[in-house]
Amino acid sequence: xxxxxxxxxxxxxxxxxxxxxxxxxxxxxxxxxxxxxxxxxxxxxxxxxxxxxxxxxxxxxxxxxxxxxxxxxxxxxxxxxxxxxxxxxxxxxxxxxxxxxxxxxxxxxxxxxxxxxxxxxxxxxxxxxxxxxxxxxxxxxxxxxxxxxxxxxxxxxxxxxxxxxxxxxxxxxxxxxxxxxxxxxxxxxxxxxxxxxxxxxxxxxxxxxxxxxxxxxxxxxxxxxxxxxxxxxxxxxxxxxxxxxxxxxxxxxxxxxxxxxxxxxxxxxxxxxxxxxxxxxxxxxxxxxxxxxxxxxxxxxxxxxxxxxxxxxxxxxxxxxxxxxxxxxxxxxxxxxxxxxxxxxxxxxxxxxxxx
Length: 356
Prior knowledge:
By secondary structure, this protein is an alpha/beta fold. It folds into 3 domains: 1-37, no CATH class; 103-170, Hemocyanin, N-terminal domain; 201-349, Rossmann fold (3-Layer(aba) Sandwich), CATH 3.40.50. The chain has helices spanning 2-19, 104-111, 115-130, 135-148, 150-160, 212-224, 270-277, 280-291, 303-311, 330-342, and strands at 82-83, 86-90, 201-205, 228-233, 237-239, 247-249, 251-252, 263-266, 296-299, 324-327. The chain has a 6-stranded parallel beta sheet with strand order 7-4-3-8-9-10, with helices on both faces. Strands 1-2 form a two-stranded antiparallel sheet. β1 (82-83) and β2 (86-90) form a beta hairpin. The longest helix has 18 residues, at 2-19. The protein starts with a helix and ends in a 14-residue tail after the last helix.
């Protein structure tokens, strides 16, 4: 009955909305007399404090508990109603055999990624599994991942400094052959954009003694392309420029950390550079931007900031690292910088572990 099914959903949805969260059944006036065991944890109106360290099934850390009661444990089962028109068959609450195939989609996704994205997936698994304190669980996860991708499992095992276990037995001995083995559309690089920098949030560092004209020229060029440029200084408010140009800092380097921005501009001006060299936030800005492969423009003496932050090797040759733009002229630098920002990130300079 579609109407009845809709009403059942509506009742639960209304309770969640009206009573402020998924634990509405634990509010004293709503709670059942008989205790209820489930895997829900935390959230608004939580009344019970379950013991133990797991909230999922199946598990090994809690001896497999709690688990679904099933028919033998007086759990919920569907009425064995006959199907209309097919009296020899009963309605069964079950899943098709295909639901037991757990790896084809995971393999399709991983193998459809670019090498950069595959590196990120392996690094993410390595990071998360390194927080798992029970070696047997790390081993079990690797055994499962071997069924999805040998390459991925090998990378993670090397990152966790542990041997590769045997593959986990599959639920299906003969898994169905996948219809699609590669899908480039699953990669983010399949949608590179239209080359616009509209909406990109770009920070221009400044300090007293900065060349204000060059900062404003780059700011205007970025704004004309639809970007959202912000001038950041050690303190918010007016900045004393070397050429007398009026310059206002929109944000301070203290309240807007570097990782919030899509690109970085380092200013020209000897006095400003010296002031920024004495501020530890400067190094964090540069290292965050470089480590996350974001574009950086160094104007004139701003190159000294790059070198002081430990990324001088990026500018040691006539051809800087991808996404690094060095220029004495603001107009020329802004043009090249806009092209670099349009590419968003420059993963060619990514290393594991990071160099800075």
